Amino acid sequence: MAQTLLSFQGTQFKLFASPWSAPAWMKTNGQMEHGGQLKGDIDGPYYQTWANYFVRYFEEYAKNGITFWGVTMQNEPDASQRWQSMIYNSSMERYFWIERLIVSRDYAKGLWGQTLLANPTTKSLKRMVLDHNRNMVIDYSNTVISFLGEIGLDFRRQRCLRHG
Fold first, then answer.
1. The domain 17-150: what is its CATH number?
2. Which of 30, 86, 125, 127 suits 155 as a labelling partner, its CA being 20 to 30 A distant?
């Protein structure tokens, strides 16, 4: 697969990653499937370990000359599926990597966004929220995007297009 990805180098092709689930031992339901959340406190060791998994993932690809444009915190964060899935809500995404990342810039806390910014392989990744369905846009806009405006940070909104 790495060789196939390398063949796209120099084109307009951009990669982004979006996880489906943390390992079962890190989740409240003890399974990779059927939703569940990361165990413990949002400032705790499970969240830091999950952030470290992200960095390692990108470092391993970088060793093979493959770079990524962006990353989402979670694929379909509100979906509890019979296949790999994990639950986050808008407040968790806001706190876990936006609010703590932007306001405090406290790398010692080691949360997801801070962990990515502290690593040379991942510091320039575009970090995205709401990798899910349009029905959640209002909640995420009110919780996440409005916070960015409150602190004076420039942000871009994606338009949802209706087909048909």
1. 3.20.20.80
2. 86
Concatenated DSSP letters for 55-91? Answer: HHHHHHHHHTT---SEEES-BSTT---SSB-----HH
- What pLDDT score does 99 carry? 57
Please write the tens of the pLDDT for every residue from 84-105. 988 887 778 777 766 554 444 4
Contact 94, 148 (CB under 8 A): no
Q: 59's torsion region: left (phi>0), alpha (psi -120 to 50) or beta?
A: alpha
In this structure, what are the phi and psi dihedrals at residue 33, rounded to the nearest 5 degrees? -95, 175
Residue 16 pairs with which residues in a beta bridge?
70
Strands laid side by side in the 70-72 sheet: 16-17, 70-72, 126-128
Domain ranges of the chain: 17-150
